[in-house]
Each structure stands twice: as structure tokens, then as C-alpha cells.
């Protein structure tokens, strides 16, 4: 179904001179300004110097995008994975490690799950806990900017939104991870848009909605019906600061974009990469930068919000070295549409509008065969979910989370927690995320959700670890 490119087993520990710095580099060392320009080598600096293994795999989607899927196959103490497999078998455990798939948020990359380093960032904690950790990178970010026949300078490279990430990127990356690891199913952790794409992939279009591929040729190609990812593939999923219904987003840049309208955005910014240029950032960050310059740390922070008291200021240069990681104007326009949504509790496919003679030449009639874009059927999701929200989150607002909970079928939501004072980026950047959040995440992933507070419900599966 998808063609996988030559598996690039980058044995990065050999390729990188930094590796010689040894295993006990303190976390502070990572705040050295990043001079590396190759995106993979730059990302590897977050992993390899600390003695963790890192693999980079190229995965091609059905519509030709070449994504970089990263893997930390085991923790640093587990030097000989083969030996460990033997040990696991002799202890009556499955030979392969359980696979966990981490999916980053909007304008972020796999780096989001790594930037706080070993002992703090989730990817390392999971590797140390015995997981085979896979980190996705969706189309258009710094690590996934290739296509089988389109160049990133070509407008056609950028004609997608999170609909396509859900329809093509997730299935391709997940199936690749499962095939390579030999596991039959995986556990999932998404942050922000990383939750959106999972929900979209598991839900599929409501009703008889069938969704055309934008890259299948003239006026869309093959029609897709039903969920992009079969329910059985994802054992359970953790949603960090989820965004599905997005009516109540209060992020200033997104509100500004929502006020623009889709065609205005395309006219102003083009139909290609969303480049937060200096002028644009000034316009979109707006009063935030003027009133409180220290808040204006990056476009991503302005967009998403973070909690200054929960941020290690010495790590800012590091964060800014990895974000914003890039996306398309159309994707930002889709988010703006979600903010403008007339019905509060619905999650819709991209709205191409009804003017088939528009700037882009695309319209709903042509793309979907209907005047309105289809909705996602959130009640079709059966995967056990844990939802973690933040009371100060401007993108994943408590009100929209309430709508999400109401939209899910009965029994699907196994755990729902709200973190006081948490903003959108605290879920990945927060100093106290390990203490307040990741323990619960690990427990839920292991199937141990029987006694996780008053909102926990349902059966705890058997603990795998
Ligand atoms: C949504 O999914 C549920 C469960 O699969 C199904 O019963 C329902 O008919 C679907 N709703 C729509 C509008 O497609």
C-alpha cells in the first residue's frame, strides 16, 4: 500500500563527532547555541550525546510525501538489545518491546518530545521504561520536507492540512513502525495537533462522506471512506492538550488568522509554506509582544502560550532552535476555520468554499461532491483514550475539551485530567511535566488505569512492562 524508501539506518552515534563527548553530558550542555543546519544532525544532538540509540527511517506516504520517522529503540542502560530480548523471553515476556508512537503538535517536530533531555522529556522516560519509542514527523516540518516528485519550492507541495496528515502520514508511519518492530499494535501519545490527527484518523468522515485525495491527480484522486487507521492498530492513546473541536481557541495569532478568512489568507500568504516572517509574526503576535516582550519568545509560544513560571529560561535558545518547524498556509487556514466554526461541537474537513473559480481553483463541490465539507465522526472512535488538559490552555481550551468529551462514544474516555495553570506548551516544555504529568502518562500506557483518580473508568488491561 505504501512504498517505503530504503531504510536509512543512520548509525548516528558513529556519524556525529559529538558522540565522543560521552554519556554523562549534563543536560545544561544542550543549551549551547545550535549551529548545525542539517535538520537530522541537529535533532540527533538532543539524543546521541546522552548515550541513547537513534535511528532515522524514511517513510513514503501514499500521496508521495517522504517523512522522517525517528526511533529510540531502547533506553541507554540497555546496551545490548538482542541480549535483552533473550532475557525478556526467558522471563516469559514478549521478545519485542511494546511500541509507543509519539506525535508532535502544530509547528513543532519530534524535537518537542526530546528538548528537555533525558530524565525530563517524555521520549527518554518511555525508552527508559522499556518502550520501543517511535517519533513521527508530519509533512512540511523541518525533517519531512521531501516528496517523491514535488519540490518544496512548488506550490503543489503545500496543498494539504491536518486532514492529509491523518489520512496519509499517520497510517504510513504507524504501519512502518509496526512492520519494522514486529509488534501488532502500538500505544500513542499525541500533543496538540498530534492528537487532532489521531482523532481524525480513527474517526473518519461522518455519514456517507468520502474524501478525495488532493494529490491523486486533477480535482482529487481516489475517494477515501472510513477511518484511515483501523481501531485495532492503536491499543490506547494519551492525548496531551488535545484539539479536535476548536471553537474556543483564544490564541491571539489564531484569532487574527480566523478573522482573515481562508481566501484572504491564501491571497496574503500564498498557497505554499506558512512562513512566520518577521512582519507577519509582528502582525500576528500583535499586542502580546508590545505589552510583554518577554512573552514574545517565538511564534510558536505566541500561538500556543506557555507558562513563564514553568519554563526553564536557560533552555529558551534551545527551544527556539527547533521551533517553529514549519507547516503549510492551508493547514493554518484549516485551524482558522475551526476557530470560526459555526457549530461549536463539530470537527470538519478543510473547507474549500463554494467558489470553484477561486484563487486556488478548488471548491467543496469539486473536492467532496457536496457544498459543505464532511464532518469527522468522533463517536466512531473505540480506542481507549486518556485526555490531559490545562486550565490555562488557549489552544486546547477547557470548553472545547468538554465538547470533545461529549462527542466521544460511551466508555472510550478512560481517564480525564486537568492540570491547573498548564498552558499549551507546558505539556512538552514544562519543568514540572515529569512530576505532574508523565507518571500518569506512563501508568495509563502500561494499562494500569484502575486507580488513577475519580474520573478513571473502565478495565485496566494487563501491565506489559
Ligand atoms: C458515526 O459512527 C457511529 C459508530 O460507528 C455510527 O453508528 C454512526 O452512524 C456514525 N454517524 C455518522 C453520522 O456517520
From TrEMBL:
Gene3D superfamilies (UniProt xref): alpha/beta hydrolase (3.40.50.1820)
InterPro entries hit by this protein: AB_hydrolase_fold, AB_hydrolase_lipase
Protein name, per record: Partial AB-hydrolase lipase domain-containing protein
Family matches, as Pfam families: Abhydro_lipase
Keywords assigned: Signal
BP-aspect Gene Ontology terms: lipid metabolic process
Partial AB-hydrolase lipase domain segment(s): 45-117
Organism, scientific name: Volvox reticuliferus
Phylogenetic placement of the source organism: Eukaryota, Viridiplantae, Chlorophyta, core chlorophytes, Chlorophyceae
Signal peptide extent: 1-21
Amino acid at each position: 500500500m505504501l512504498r517505503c524508501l530504503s531504510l536509512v539506518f543512520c548509525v548516528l552515534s558513529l556519524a556525529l563527532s559529538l558522540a565522543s563527548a560521552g554519556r554523562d553530558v549534563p543536560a545544561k550542555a544542550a543549551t549551547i547555541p545550535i549551529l548545525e543546519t542539517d535538520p537530522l544532525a541537529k535533532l540527533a544532538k538532543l539524543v546521541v550525546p546522552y548515550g541513547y540509540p537513534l535511528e532515522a527511517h524514511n517513510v513514503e506516504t501514499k500521496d508521495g510525501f517522504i517523512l522522517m520517522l525517528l526511533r529510540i529503540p531502547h533506553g541507554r542502560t540497555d546496551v545490548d538489545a538482542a541480549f535483552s530480548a533473550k532475557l525478556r523471553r526467558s522471563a516469559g515476556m514478549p521478545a519485542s518491546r511494546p511500541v509507543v508512537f509519539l506525535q508532535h503538535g502544530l509547528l513543532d517536530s519530534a524535537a518537542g518530545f526530546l528538548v528537555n533531555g533525558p530524565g525530563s522529556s517524555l521520549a527518554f522516560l518511555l525508552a527508559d521504561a522499556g518502550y520501543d519509542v517511535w517519533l513521527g514527523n508530519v509533512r512540511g516540518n523541518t525533517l519531512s520536507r521531501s516528496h517523491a516528485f514535488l519540490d518544496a519550492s512548488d506550490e503543489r507541495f503545500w496543498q494539504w492540512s491536518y486532514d492529509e496528515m491523518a489520512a496519509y502520514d499517520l497510517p504510513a508511519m504507524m504501519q512502518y513502525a509496526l512492520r519494522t518492530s514486529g509488534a501488532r499494535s502500538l500505544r500513542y501519545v499525541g500533543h496538540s495537533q498530534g492528537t487532532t490527527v489521531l482523532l481524525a484518523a480513527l474517526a473518519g468522515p461522518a455519514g456517507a462522506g468520502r474524501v478525495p485525495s488532493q494529490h491523486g491527480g486533477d480535482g482529487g484522486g481516489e475517494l477515501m471512506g472510513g477511518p484511515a487507521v483501523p481501531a485495532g492498530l492503536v491499543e490506547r492513546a494519551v492525548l496531551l492538550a488535545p484539539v479536535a473541536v476548536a471553537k474556543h481557541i483564544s490564541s491571539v495569532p489564531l484569532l487574527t488568522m480566523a478573522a482573515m478568512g481562508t481566501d484572504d489568507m491564501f491571497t496574503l500568504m500564498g498557497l505554499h509554506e506558512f512562513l512566520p516572517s518577521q512582519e507577519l509574526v509582528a502582525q500576528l503576535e500583535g499586542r502580546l509582544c508590545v505589552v510583554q516582550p518577554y512573552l514574545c519568545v517565538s511564534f510558536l509560544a505566541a500561538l500556543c502560550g506557555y507558562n513563564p513560571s514553568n519554563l526553564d529560561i536557560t533552555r529558551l535558545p534551545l527551544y527556539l532552535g527547533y521551533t517553529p518547524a514549519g507547516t503549510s498556509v492551508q493547514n493554518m487556514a484549516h485551524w482558522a476555520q475551526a476557530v470560526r466554526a459555526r457549530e461549536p461541537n463539530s470537527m470538519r474537513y478543510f473547507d474549500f468554499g463554494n467558489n470553484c473559480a477561486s484563487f486556488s481553483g478548488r471548491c467543496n463541490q469539486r473536492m467532496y461532491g457536496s457544498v459543505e465539507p464532511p464532518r469527522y465522526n468522533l463517536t466512531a472512535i473505540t480506542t481507549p483514550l486518556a485526555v490531559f488538559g490545562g486550565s490555562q490552555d488557549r489552544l486546547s481550551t477547557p470548553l472545547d475539551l468538554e465538547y470533545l468529551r461529549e462527542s466521544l462514544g460511551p466508555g472510550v474516555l478512560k481517564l480525564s485530567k486537568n492540570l491547573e495553570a498548564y498552558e499549551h506548551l507546558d505539556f512538552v516544555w514544562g519543568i514540572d511535566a515529569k512530576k505532574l504529568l508523565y507518571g500518569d502518562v506512563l501508568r495509563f500506557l502500561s494499562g494500569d488505569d484502575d486507580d488513577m483518580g475519580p474520573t478513571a473508568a473502565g478495565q485496566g488491561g494487563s501491565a506489559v512492562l
